[in-house]
Structures are given as C-alpha cells and as structure tokens.
Protein 1
Amino acid sequence: MKKILKLQVNGEEFEVLTETHKTLLEVLREDLGLTGTKRGCDLGTCGACTVLIEGKPYLSCLTLAIDVQRKKIITIEGLSEQGKPHPLQKAFVEKGAIQCGFCTPGMILTAKAFLDQHPHPQEGEVKRAISGNLCRCTGYVKIVEAILSTIE
Amino acid sequence: MNRLDVVGKREPMLDAWDKAMGRARFTDDLTLPGMLYGKILRSPLAHAKILHVDLSKAKKVAGVKGAISGKDIPKKKYGIVPMAKDEYALAIEKVRYIGDEVAAVVATTWEAAEEAISKIRVDFEELPAVFDPIEAMKPGAPIIHEEVPNNVSAKIHKEFGNVEKAFGESDFLFEDTFETQAVNHAPLEPHAALAIVDPYGKVTLWASTQIPFFLRRNLATALDIPESKVRVIKPKVGGGFGQKIDQYAKDFCAAFFAAKTGKPVKFVYEREEVFTCTRQRHPMHIQLKTGMKKDGTIWSQQFKVIADGGAYNSTAPLMITLACFFIMLPYRLENLLFEGYHVYTNKPVGGAMRGHGIPQVRFAVETQLDRISEKMEIDPLDLRLKNAFQAGEPHPAKLLVQSCGFSDTLRKAAEEIGWKEKRGKLPFGRGVGLAGASFPSGVSNMSHISSGAIVKIERDGSITLLTGAADIGQGAETVISQIAAEELGVPLEDIRITAADTEITPLDPGTFGSGVTLRAGNAAKMAACSAKEKLLEAVAEKMEARSEDLEAKNRRIYVKGSPERGMSFQEAIKYYQYSDRPMPIIGRGSYSPPAKEPTTLLKENGNFSPAYSFMTQAAEVEVDTRTGKVKVLKMVASHDCGRAINPMLVEGQLEGSVVGGMGQALYEDVMTEKGQVLNPSFLDYGLPTAMEIPSIISVEVETDDPEGPFGAKESGEGTQLAPAPAIINAIYDAIGVRFHSLPVTPEKVLKALHEKKK
Ligand code: FES
Ligand code: FES
C-alpha cells in the first residue's frame, strides 16, 4: 500500500509517495536520491546504513520510514554546515581513515552521535562506540585516530 | 636519486573528500530511467541434475519483464584463467553447490523480482555429493565436472635439488600436518552490476569489479559477442580483496536482460549471497616435512597441499602455483619437492583472496619453523635470520630477486615487539611470536599483463592522466597520480585522473597479484616522461640548451642544478604553442613486466614477478586461560615495499591487512555442513570489529627496487601472509600449545589446555 510520508531530512521537508513497508534506507536511497547512506547487509549487522534521528544513531535498514515522519533525520550529505565539512569529515580525510569509503558515512555519523554525548572519551570508549560499524579495509586504526584527533 | 617532491608524501586519497561527504558513487548508487531490477534463483541442492525449469508462473507476476534459465543463454564457458574455464553464467544441465545459479528474472521492482523467483519451479534429480577434497580425490567419488574424472582440476608437482638425498643428509627431520579454514573476503559493498545496451548491441556495464578489462573479455565470451561490443566502467568499489576478480552471474544477467528488454538492468547481491555464492579463501590440508642441518640450515622440504576448491575453478592453477612457489621464499631452500592439488567439491567456490594461496602455506611453514627452533634450541629469530634470502642470490626456481629487505624486516619487527626481553620470558598466558613471508609485485609471466597510460597536457597547462588501473579503495588512483606528478615536476593537485573505463582508458589487467603500483605506476611514469620530453624539447630550443640538461620540478622547467635558469610550466606551454607545435601534448606509456622466459610456472620455472616484497609480522598475545579467549595486544608489521609512494596509504594497507590476518587466525570461518553455509551473515561470521584490534605498529623497511617506479613494490597483500602464524607462535609462547588448524577459537584453546593438564 502506498502512502504519502512526510520526512524531514537534512533540514528539508519532503513528501514521498511510497510503499508503507519501505525502510528508511530504501526511501533515502531510492526515493530521495541520498545514496551517501550505504547498504552493506540490510540486516542490521554492519552499520553502513547509520543515520542520525533526533541526534541518535539508527540503522536505517531496520527503521521503517513511516515511523520516523516529522523527526529530524541527518544523513552524511547533511552533516556539513553551509558547505563546511564537519571536523570528523576533515579528520577522516586527513588521517587516512578512508579507504574504499563504503563504511565511512555510517562510521562518521556514529562517531558524531557518540562525541555529542561524550565529548572527552578514552580510546577504548571510542572503539566500543564504533564496534557496530564494520570496516574491512582499514583495520580501524586510522578511524580511531581520526575520531580522537577531533577532540580538543 | 634526486630529492622527491610528491612521491613519498603522506597524501590523502584523491577521492577521500567525496567519500567523506557522501558524494562518492558506487555501482548500486547509480540509477537510470526505466531501470529494471534483477534477482537470481539459486540451487538448494549441493549436486543435482536440472531436469526442468518452469518459468511460466514467474513470468506472470505483475511487473516481471523477463525470466531465463540456463537453457536460454549461450553455451559458452568462462573463467578468469583461460585454461581453467568451467563456468556458465547460469547452470546448464547441472548444479554443483548450494547457491549455484539456476534462473534469473527482472522486474520493475525488487519486490516483484523476488516474488517471481519464488514462483519458479525446478525439477532436480539429486546426485551424490562430496564435501571433502580428500574424499573427492578417491576413485569412485562423485564426479563434479564430467571432464575432470578425479575432481583434481589443477595440479603441480616439482622438485628442486634432490629431496630424498637431502633428507638423508639432514640431522633433524620434522613432519607436521596442518588445516586451514574457508575465509570470506567480506567487502563492505555487496557485488552489483548495472547494464544498458544500445540499439546496435553495444553493452555498457557498470560493475563492482577489480578487473574491468578481464571482465570485458569474460563478458564478451559469455554473451558470445565481440569484445568491441562491451564497455565496462568501474565506479567506486567498496573493497574487493580478490573477491571482485571473477565475473559473476549478476554481470552476465544484467547485460543479457538489458539486451533483451532494451532497458537498464541492475543486479545487487544480498549479503548472504556474498558469503555463499561469490568466492572464499581455499581451505587447505597441508603436509610438511623439513630436514635441518645441525647448524640451523633449512636443508630440505617436502610439501603436499590439497586445496578445497569448491564447485568451480576460478583462479585454481594460479592459486596452487603461488601456494607452492612461495614456500621457497623468503628463505634459502635448495632441496624442495612440492605437490599441489586443487580439488572440486560441492561447496562454495574458492578464489583469489589477499595473499592468494600463500597465507595457508606460511601458516604451516612458519609455525613448524618455531617448533624446529625449539627442538634445536636456536632462537626462532636467529633461525630465520640464518636462512633469510638475500637480494641477488641465485634462486633454484629462477626467481629474480633484485631487492630484498627481509633480514631487516626480521630485525626491526623483533626490536619493535621486544623480542629479546619477552620471548620465553613473559608470565604464563602471555607470549610473543613472529613469522616471515614474501609476495610478488604482480605477475610477469603472461603477455596480457600489460598496463597502459596516457598523459595529456592541455592548452591551459592542465594535465589529464588516463589509466586503466582499478582503484578499489586501496588508493591506486592517488598513487599513480603521485608518480605522474613527480615525473612531470608538478604538485599532485595539478593532475586530473580518469581511470578504469575500457572504452576510454588504456588496457590494464586490473587489481590483482599486487601489481598495480608497479605496472600501472610504471606506465604512468613512462607516459608522463614522454609528455615531459616534448615540452623540454621546446624549452631547450628557446633556451638554447640541450633537453637532457633540463629538469622539471615545482612547476618549473630549468637547467639542472640552476632553478633560476628556466621558465615556469605555464610559460613553457605557451612557448610550445607559439612555436607552432601541435597541441595537445600527449605522452604514452605501455608497460609490461620484463619476462625473459614467459612461463606459467605450472610446468617450467622462470621469473614470476618483476619484484618481490618481503615482510615480518610480530605479535604479542594474552590468553585468558579461563575462557580460552586470545587477545592480540600488539602487532608489528614490518614490510619491505621498496619505496613507499605514499606512506600513509601504505600504513593503511598494512593495518587493514594485519587485522584481516588476525581474523583468519582467531575468528573467521565460513562453516558448512553438507555444503550448506551455516553462518552467512556478519552476525555469525566473526569479522573483527574495532573492539578486537591491537595496537598496530607499521615499520616500513625501504629498499629501492630497480624495476619498480621510483623503487616501489607491493604493499597491501603480502602483509596478510604472516599475521596468523605470528599469532599462533605467540600463543605457543604464552601457553605452550601448538595449534595446527585455524582458526584458534576459545573452544580449541580450552580443550588444548585441558589436555595439556592431563
Ligand atoms: S545495511 Fe543496515 S546495518 Fe548493514
Ligand atoms: S574503508 Fe572500506 S570498509 Fe571501511
């Protein structure tokens, strides 16, 4: 069954006519063309599809779009402010924390939500925070380094 | 060598910003108007005849635009190694493993495609299946491919020196057997393909592939059309590690349906399909016998490996060759006899994976060396140093090793892990271990392993580099651009690169065998040099100098040694045009690794690779004797990669590779029962997470290889050869138990500790 969903993504309001069983991941990628959010498993096991809903990290492949109407959704495309990259984005680039980049959007958003809650974490806490986000390329070393480097 | 400005710099990847901002486009991020979505029906049986496939109900599902089975496609086998082609895009007559492709559909939505798949009826006649390679080799075992009656689809058998005699001359003999498990590459991006076909039958395919040009060839074969009718474009690829070397049903089906329907067609694999129906590291049974001289010389080795290939060949002949030949490096070894068998079973298919057949072998050799050193009371480090191969030494198999930093990697790894203070001296439960390895920098034995590059200097002085090389996240485009920039004497940001489009960019074999930097890097260097020479000629005329006396650096062209006597790059371009020379300036490079005696190594010997990298891994572990859990505290990756073109990217390669090797040592295992994969998800598989990572120290041992561009060699793959044995050796140091099968799970540790107490 199709329905009009009202979604607020990256500060913009959208009305999407779509099937009610669609996940947020599908709606973002297929209806809104926001392909920065990645599908690595579609089963809630890799973290690649992480987005922020009201500032908290959610796996968009396990979230129904219909359930998050009128909530503030941030995807990787919406993390920069007025074209200025978020410090985490800059750190990931400069520290070499990105290889294939498929895990990157989810990783950065998870890190952002975590740092918002824990501005001065220990290394171990950072590792725990991103342990639901898999990366096959980097061995996580430079990812952890990049995240820690943004803490003043 | 001159001071280098761009090569050797820690530069972020050229596409890192796109990836960080969510702008990078991977295959599944592409959509085209009117696109159809495809799904594949896979075999639920491990071995069966296909009697009949009924597509009629599937075709009636609303939105379905096409359905096919093996009967509908050209009966053309393909495969990545020409001599080992054994696959059809969809099974014809027979399925050989659970997951084999039986039929495919396309529809206007994923849901419709999925529904249609569920409506296909297949009548199978189940056949006896075989799941163990040793069983599969026995007479009377079920035959999986009719043309291979004993299921051995590739074998190698060679002797160097005289092994029997050398065993007689040995003072000590050691014999062990080893077993390794199936490991999935698990790239984060699932395999995808998108195809369109124009009215003249020309196919364009965007695919998550490591080897666009081979894919073009294979796809043309499978579709039974000329290669000139296929164009392959590689968008961003979310990791490959060898798994994206092969052509898959998704590539063929996307192209086939696009031709049939006239619409764009997309196929994307589910994670479960990635785990079960793509490729995996070959499980191996290994027997190893070593004869040692009293003084610690490795005098003789006999080696037998049986690799479980699963249902198809993929890279079988190459894999088994690598496994056997790289038992001979990084040590001096004059007497060696090896036998390798690649055996079909009714299981998921083995293929190239980071290290390609060698990690399993290194696990055997390096852990046995530890046992030997204990028995002979020689420090494992000293034993390795004593036998370490050196540059320029004659090699029994005629491998030509022109640069070799192996001994240095051993010393530095030992120093960094604290070998002297820790080995054998840590409290029970803690230990250190090390292991060594060597890897080729690409293959030099087949004529089609050539790379091309084109450098264009435009009227405004901007520079475009075309390369066929396939960046799959390792940073190939960045490294190749750095090489071209260095050669042209301009900063990296002056180079724009276009890569991996078979219609536009020159031929390149793609990303495999760790040859990209050396091959494509050399081609780019040649192209840049030839463009530069044209420019230098013009400047020489203007300055009344000889062009050999000029050099290009820092966006200037000047007389060597006197930067003030010259002109800027821009002025040079201007002069070039004013002197009525035709624009644009185009430099070309075609590079093929030197091969004096082209060989596949299967039969003859000869130099296999233009250069060899060397590495040592050292590990410190802690074993929880209550739970059996092994925690890796520290890993040192000491790597001779020639000259590091981009040290930050090299470090990234080492770190990722080490963690992959650690996964293989301790966690990862594609478990099957009667051919059924039991754990085809990230949840059950055991990919290392950030929680498991140790502190990782990368130590680059620089050598200057004469064949590599600016002296560079392989860096990303060899590192995965030795982490597992280093960790296993460290576990022995910690608890005094030797493990002969991977992965070393907590259950195995507890059981071993329990038995040890008895
Ligand atoms: S795609 Fe959502 S967790 Fe993997
Ligand atoms: S960078 Fe490739 S998966 Fe993380």
Protein 2
Amino acid sequence: MAGLSNSLKDNPRLDRWLKFCDDRTVRVGTGKVELGQGVLTALAQIAAEELDLRIDQISMMSGNTAEGPGEGYTASSWSIEHSGGAIRLVAAEVRELALKQAALRLNASPDELSVVEGVFLRNGTPTDFDYWAVAGDLDLAAEATGTVLPKSSNTYRLVGTSVPRLDLPAKLTGSGFIHDMVLPDMLHARTLRQPGRGATLAALDEAFVRRKAGADISIIRIDNFVAFVGADETAVRAAAVAAADCAVWSDARILHPEQATAKWVAAQPSHDRLIGAPVEEPAGAHGASLTFTRPFLSHGSIAPSCALAVYRDGALTVWSHAQGMHPLRDNIAKTLGLPPENVTCHHVQGGGCYGHNGADDAALDAALLARALPNQPIRLMWRREEEFGYEPLSSAMTVTVHAALDAGGRPRDWTTEIWSAAHGQRPGVGGAYLLAADAMKEQPPERKPFDIPLERGGGADRNGIPLYDIDAKRISYHLIHDVPVRTSSLRGLGATLNVFAIEALMDELAAREGEDPVSYRLSTLSDPRARRTLEKAAAMAGWSLRDAGGAGRGLGIGLARYKNSSAYAAVVAAVEVDEAVRVTDIWCAVDAGLVINPDGIVSQVEGNIVQAISWTLIEEVGFDPQGISTLDWQSYPVIRFSDIPEIHVELIEADQHEALGVGECAGGPTAAAIGNAVAHALGIRICDMPMTRERIMAAALNA
Amino acid sequence: MSQPFTLTVNGRDHSLDIPATTPLLDVLRNHLGLKGSRYGCGLEQCGACMVLIDGNAEYSCSREVGTLAGRCVTTVEGLGSPEALHPLQRAFLEEQAGQCGYCLSGILVSAKALLDRNPNPTRADVIAALDANLCRCGSHPRILRAVLKAAATLRQEVA
Ligand code: FES
Ligand code: FES
C-alpha cells in the first residue's frame, strides 16, 4: 500500500469515502470540515474530476463519525494534501471498478469504455449503463489498494477552475449555520463558566437568577459545571448574565495585567530544546541580532460557539462546528465515561474558524446537559464574553533572531530563539482536554508540556527555519508551560512572529550592505520556487521604483514557505505612517502547486492578509484580576472596512507540483511586509506587535 | 406584563403575545422562525444582527420589540430568496463575497439601506455604510466590490 496517505491508511474501506446514492448522485465522505475556507467545494471538484461527473452530481458528507472517514482535525492547511489525496485515489479506484463491471455487463473490453457525467460510453456512444446501474455489483466494503493511477493533471477539466462555493447561496439568504438548527422540543442553554481549574462554586443566589430570567428555567449543576436551561432563549441568556454577576467562587484564578505580556511569558521557567544544526559559533564572527514580540491573540469568530446534543437510550448524538468530529467523539466519550461507539458527532457549519476555538468545548457543554436531561434535545450557545474569556488564546511570544555573517555580509549561521507557550493543545493532544472537564469532580490529570513537533509542522517554532541558503540553521525553543490561560492554535501558529522576525533581520542585513532588500534576499536564495514567488510579488508592486523611504511612506517585503513545506507566499505592503500605520496596498504572489480552485485560493489568501493586518496593527488580549479583560469588540478591536487596503493576489502557475495547503501561507509574510514597510517609512524599526499609535509615537520619540 | 401587539416583518403582520422587553433578534429567530439575522455579540458592536427598521439599518440584538409597534422591519429573508435573489445577493454570489458567511446577513442589510438612499455610492460611501459591520474572515475586499456591482446593476434596472 505504498503511496497511501494516512487518511486512507486509517480509513481503508472504499465505502467510507464514496457511495452511489439512489438520487443518482455520489456521496463523498471526508473527515475534513467546512470552516469558511471552501474545502468542501475543492474536495467535490477532485471527486467529480476523477469520476467524470458534474459538480452537481456530488454531495459532500463531512465530519460524520457514524459513516464517514476519520481524519483528525481540519487544521494546518493539510486538507487538500491529505483528504484530497485520499479522495483522488479512492475515486480513481471506484471508477475503475465500475468501468470493469460495466465492461462485463456490456461484453466489452474496458478500453472501449469511457465515462461522461456518470454514463458509460462505448467507443464514444452512450450505453444503457451508468454508475448507478452497476453500483449494486461493486464491493465498496473492500479496502482501497491505491493501485489505480489517478488522471494526469493535464487532462483536468474541473480541477483548476473556479467552481463557486457550494455553501454560499444558503448563507446569503438567511440559513446554513448550526446556530439555526431546531430540533423538536429543543431547550436552550447557557453556562456559568468556572473561573479556572480548581475553582469551586461557593454560592449562587438561584432565586435572583430565576427572577432575572423572567421565565421558567432549570438550573443544572454537575460538580462545578453550571448551566441554565429552558424553552425561552431570552430567559436563559438573562439567567446566565445574572449568574455571572452574583456567583461566588472560591479559588478562582486571578490574573495580573503583566502576565498578558510577551515579556512576562519569556521570563517563566521553560522546557528547552534545540532543533537543527549544532551550535558552533566560531569566535570573531560578525553578526546581528534583533528581538521581536507579540501579545496573546483571540480567534474572535463573529459567531459564538454553539452545539446541540441529545441523549437517548444510552446513545449520545452531538452536532458541532468543531474542526474534527472523530477526535471530538473520543474526547466527549472519555469525559462522560461512555463507550465511544455510543457517541455520534455530526459536523454542521458554524462561524469562521481560524484554529482551536471554543467549538469543541461548547460541544462537551451540550453533551453534559443532554446526559443530565435524557431525551431532551439541548441547544447550547456561548455568550460573547464567554467566547473571548474562555476560548484558547494564541500565545504571546518573543523571538530573537541571530545571524553570523560571512565575508560578503550574508548569513552563514542562523539561530531563531523562541519563548512561547504551546500552540498545539487540541483536546486529546499532549494530555489536553475539553474545558468543562476541569469542572468535574474527577478532574483529568494536568496537561503536559507539549507543542506540535517541527516534523508535523511545528507549533511556536513553525517557520522558525529561514528558507535562505545558510550553512547552519537552528531553532532554540523555550516552551513555557506555566501560563495562567489555555493556549492553542490560531491560524499560522508561531509562523506569524517567526516570519516577521526573520524577514526583519534580512532587511537589516541588506541595509548594512547597502543593498536592496529583494536583491539581497535573491543573492542567498536558491529554491527556484521561492525566487519566482519573491520576484513576482516585487514586480506586481513596482518594487524597482521604491525610493529611499523615511518620509512617512514605505514599501516592505516578506517571504515564506508555510511550514517550510506548504505554499510559498511573498507579500509587498505599502504603508503611510503619521501617528498611526495605514496599509494602503498589498501585493501578494502565491505558489500553491497544483491549484484546485483558483478563486477559492485567492479568497483564502485575501482573508489571511486582512487578518494579519489586524494582528500586526491592532489586536492584543489583556488580563485583569477577574481573568481575560478583553471581552467584547470595544476592548478587543479588529480591522474594519475603513482599514482595508487594496489587495492584489496572483497565483503562480505550478501545476506540475502537488497541491499545497494555502489558507495560512500569507499571514507571516504580510506581517513581515508591514513591519519592513514601517521601518522603511520611519527609518526606525518597531519590533513589537501590534504596531499601535502609542508604539509608533514612543519609537519616534526615542529615535 | 405582556400585552398582545402587532409587528410587521418583511411585509407581514405578526400578532405577538410576549414581553415587550424581548430583544427583536430573539423574536425574529425564535418566535417567527426567521433565522437569517444572527447573534454575534448582543452588545450592538458587531452588526451580525442588523435589520432594516423603516429602511434604516439597525441592530436588533438589544432592541426591545415593544418599541417597534407600527414600524416595518425587514430582514435578510425579506431581500430575496434562493430562488429569487436580490441584486445584492446575486452580486455577492458573483463576487464570491464571503468565507464563513456569518456576517453576511447584517452586511447585506446595511448595504440595502445604503443603496436605497444612495443609488450611486462611491467606494468611500460603501465603506462608511459598512463600518459598523465586522467581518472576521477578511472578506471585505470582495464585499466592497459586490456592493458597488449591485449598485450598478440596480441603476441599470431603473434606467
Ligand atoms: S449581535 Fe447585535 S451587534 Fe452584535
Ligand atoms: S465571512 Fe466570516 S465573518 Fe465575514
């Protein structure tokens, strides 16, 4: 079975992936889920291509633990590489099986047959047979062999075209979200969150809460997990607000404002590891080093987390918008002490998801209530304050980049030194678990110090290795375990700050040599795809006309290959800086290898750029003694329409290369390009994100 | 404390017997089954819940329904349906303006209010009209293009 992806090795049965349905469609299963990134449309294109079907002959079944394949989490831009690869092989194999069966029935040789829109043609003439006529004779319970060669990319008719998103029409006309689901006799629910592991509810004035609710509600308490349940959502919400105001907790977590800073995080005890080249810095090497920071960040989905659940006859069914239904099932089963086969999880689309947010936790909340109230469908939703206050954060980070230079002023030895809490703490990974498990009498053991290893894309150290030609490159990673908040994955993970730092130092090194930043990079960059991407972005932006800068306008560039193994992106940013930074234009070139859906990729990249502008210039989580203090959109502002620059994205033709994940490739380069553009505009470098008005003013005063 | 009253939504009268303090958003979603207006923050800060009240784009998440007797409420469902899309919805589809789509109901409603009072908006006008609406996915560039495109289509239809 050489060549089979893990997705297929873990789910070898063909019928987990493909099923011929009575309505003359083909149902394609995937463990990957739609998060607003358009993945289901792209996967449908891959299946339709291999099976010679129209796109509307495919229906996607995604994130279904009862019937579909398990593929872990939808994360780190792996979907097209993993799920797409599996679907391509399975579809090619099933097409071949069906074709052979049809040949048998038609007494023809398989070579005489072809398929158009699911109908078999014999020497170009339609026959009476189609997929559905022979489907009953196919053994799809068999395991994939992976031996049938998929089509070659130069024969593609659907892959590579901008098929419109399958889910958008519903979302433009008022439906399409888990939040809209209604089950018969459904009750609404909101929770009272435990303020930290180990906190105990000492008192709750239930009479006050009921009075504030104004309608009939139940108060469910399971150890230190408390929720308000009732038919009237307005009342349930009012109860939760009142309870948060009046609940008395003992041993609640107390946070301090300084703990929200990268500086505080970097000063904590760490688990250290060295990755890459051994340290051997010859004496007398001349070099340079710079230190960069960024604060904690929120995912801040516009849609609060939501889940539905019902418990009947010992079986639990959960509907969730989390990133992986199979892991969710296992984690819920574990917390509830149910056998996993008694738990079924279905994915239903939710709001934009940019990493590990509160979705999984809300699903456990709903499951706990469903089990406490058997036969009673529960719809649980988080409040905005809960979303900001309890979803996992993206860790504050400090990165110092050191370069030792050769005689020509090129880096010869490079260290990226990182201080950060973990970026990969999804439930089930490294001892991490779902939030409400902390509230149970039997608490899970404390999670262990763990971050995603670099071989699997890395966590805080993601993209810590520069892609330039440097003899010795290494990462020195100080993993800080003891931070007072949960941290986990946000789009790009550590790559955002690592690329920001690496690309800033490259600009500084170019300036020392009196060279242009683009030509300096090219002089030490042999990867042809990286070169082409960089040159393309520079050309798009008219880089050759770039002036000396320093007059409040700047042009900066940033380049990276996401995870050092996925899509390449180069970004040029144009900024105007007076008191604040204003990004006026972004030019971005992307090499994503074989492109499944060009417009879908451009849309993803645009979104990534907009989000990265927001991280770089605006966003910052704060703490106060009560916990996270940035609990609404006023205290946690994000980019608005008035801050959106002109964004130009172009894809580089690279169809001969395999398809690469693209949804996170532009974030680091965008942050870097803005950082370098601001330095170009001001003649001084701001090393701390976000580059707020206050930081600009302070830097200008100190210059 | 509740007293039956009439609320007009998308041109239809609904007689309601619920507390006058109930937020309009809850009434739309839970009492009238119109799920298009969305709960994002409940704080009048994100715009996901926006509806038209007598033609103006307004937040519905904290608006007490009792204040709306005799007023006309229009939700995204009142703009168009999958079978008969409003030119704005059609333009959003053509531009593939939206990633997760959760913000879109509110944004469509804000854009409708703009185009009703200003059929010939500039990009700056559109930005100003949408600045109360957050989109976390970064679909802004496409949304701006789509609104301008819909404006052009509507002008042609009138001409
Ligand atoms: S839900 Fe009304 S403004 Fe956010
Ligand atoms: S498309 Fe997701 S919030 Fe706008």
